[in-house]
């Protein structure tokens, strides 16, 4: 028999969804998201069509006019600037405020003081707005989420994409595809989110939209083509020509609010023809109808092209590209029209839940029907303490939420009254009485963690939604309040942050008697320390940032371990034999090598099945705290091949302990290794600082992978140990006169050098049974 308690990357991600999720839930989530990936698009389409056909006509009509979309991109691409225009053109705000604007107001969506001061988005903000589609003059309702670009706040992007039906990918016309663009694209792919692309900053020096399109295709491996041709670039950028309608669009008025359409100027006619041919050719590659017309050498009509773009975009086979400059108020309205034209309504997206009515014993996948008359199923995807109190953002997948009604927390079974319901607009709100299937809303005072599912009791069924990917933390810091009087507020605040943000973790280290916080980067932790001060009045003393190391085995090692306590009373006995072996990192996995696996090859019932399961549990527990420095263990497979049981004294506890003992023994006797996180670092600065940057990277022992010169700007991509990157922002500022910027994200783990490993063990775990000096050479 071979059964495995898989902790492969997806399962681990799922297990990390919330600290209190049981591994059973974790496994279910994993299976669910996995099966989601297994459905072909054709099957998806068939199912989605059935759902739409089953909706009452009135509901279908309503859903057709809803778009739940996100705005995601690399840092500083202009997402917030773009969103500010969206709010203005949809009538949500009366004046445009800029990010770090001179009016001291700051962009509306960056509503946190910290965001306005730093000029970055930290939390995603949801906004509800109405848009009148320009060609049809029909009104649509958008739930729009502006997400942060910094990798430190990546969970915000994850949870937004988890509940959104489509996205606008914003790319800078001059910088093109940057590292975070690729990360965001990968996140969109993970949640099957269709996207349209907006090439922003057409007014910037060095803007080159067609090069960006080539880049997008090459780096994101996503077919895309322009549906607009820009008129002028850099400071001569005036507007864009709509390839489908063959009209030139200009944006007049103080804020570009007056759209003026004219005939295409003579000089642009050839390029419009050329780009139209490319668009049709690309569509022919991913849409059957256009392919057939193409083969027959027939030119498709504008309507045929529009329908094909919609089909191909929703099928995630294509992304239409628009151009503009948010800051110069040019092009945003056409992106909103494109959202209506090419991104799906909630009933066009396949969403699944897991039926856990019987406690999750039998897995049963259920398709959410987007019908407001069905049993309510909604997902709490974001918690936020706002000026109105504790807010919980929910996406309603089916059924409806009504003010005063009751919902049940699937996991705890707790019944909760919905006291208030609201549609949010950045930090303003609009109270409503009910929210239907397919919509996003905020509720008040609901006690839960992000990722929890809520249902109503219309039927006896219980559902849980598959949840989101939660990346592992890479940086830790010790933290304590300056004064002991503040301990209670301190712990309350940390618990709250942890519930809000699953990438922010807290643990108490018994040995050092310190509270340790961990997160996605220095900035991530800094923000929480700052929030402790501002929101809870708790000033803290924080330790130096530390890297989150990992431990592994680099060579197979056999084990034969007996756990025995048989001196009087009821005894304990369990013997396990087998091998621990390293798991080779799989190519293309995001967190290499993230897995631990447990396998049994025991025959003849020498160890009872429930005792084998206890061994698996013991192995899992051991992996949480490695023997070298107490870090997590990754990349190890435990195979139990044989064992001995005692008729009376063997129990689940004995075998759990036996597995843990075998694990410790293997690490002490085998070739164990500490791994450190390596970051993919992208530094951009004016070209004159190229040699300074290279000098700085060399000093940090970075391995340079790519250097790209664009106009007067240089971008250097390298791999660098996270440990060397603490304080990098300050060094970069110093060597580029403050003109350099950088982004980084986790890339992979690397073995520490032998001397570094020995020093680290001596520092962290001086009592280690075996102070290893045997690190592998890099
Ligand atoms: N030249 C030019 N600058 C722009 C344009 N759009 C935005 N910017 C500027 O680019 C900078 C970053 O803009 P944001 O809107 O904060 O970018 P973001 O993507 O939301 O940033 P994060 O949320 O921190 O990742 C700001 O200084 C904007 O004024 C544009 O169309 N042209």
TrEMBL record:
Role summary: Mitochondrial GTPase that catalyzes the GTP-dependent ribosomal translocation step during translation elongation. During this step, the ribosome changes from the pre-translocational (PRE) to the post-translocational (POST) state as the newly formed A-site-bound peptidyl-tRNA and P-site-bound deacylated tRNA move to the P and E sites, respectively. Catalyzes the coordinated movement of the two tRNA molecules, the mRNA and conformational changes in the ribosome. Catalyzes the GTP-dependent ribosomal translocation step during translation elongation. During this step, the ribosome changes from the pre-translocational (PRE) to the post-translocational (POST) state as the newly formed A-site-bound peptidyl-tRNA and P-site-bound deacylated tRNA move to the P and E sites, respectively. Catalyzes the coordinated movement of the two tRNA molecules, the mRNA and conformational changes in the ribosome.
Organism: Hanseniaspora valbyensis NRRL Y-1626
Biological processes annotated in GO: mitochondrial translational elongation
Gene: MEF1
Subcellular location: Mitochondrion
Pfam families for the chain: EFG_C (PF00679), EFG_III (PF14492), EFG_IV (PF03764), GTP_EFTU (PF00009), GTP_EFTU_D2 (PF03144)
Keywords: Elongation factor, GTP-binding, Mitochondrion, Nucleotide-binding, Protein biosynthesis
Protein name in the entry: Elongation factor G, mitochondrial
Gene3D superfamilies per the UniProt record, alphabetical: 3.30.230.10, 3.30.70.240, Elongation Factor G (Translational Gtpase), domain 3, P-loop containing nucleotide triphosphate hydrolases, Translation factors
Presence of keyword GTP-binding: yes
Similarity section: Belongs to the TRAFAC class translation factor GTPase superfamily. Classic translation factor GTPase family. EF-G/EF-2 subfamily. Belongs to the GTP-binding elongation factor family. EF-G/EF-2 subfamily.
Chain ranges of the Tr-type G domain: 64-347
Positions annotated to bind GTP: 73-80, 146-150, 200-203
PROSITE patterns: G_TR_1 (PS00301), G_TR_2 (PS51722)
Molecular function GO labels: GTP binding; GTPase activity; translation elongation factor activity
InterPro entries referenced in this protein's UniProt entry, alphabetically: EFG_II, EFG_III, EFG_III/V, EFG_IV, EFG_V-like, EFTu-like_2, G_TR_CS, P-loop_NTPase
Predominant location: mitochondrion
Biological or metabolic pathway of the protein: Protein biosynthesis; polypeptide chain elongation
A cellular component term, taken from the record's GO annotations: mitochondrion
SMART domains registered for this protein in UniProt: EFG_C (SM00838), EFG_IV (SM00889)
Statement: the UniProt record of this protein carries the keyword ATP-binding: no
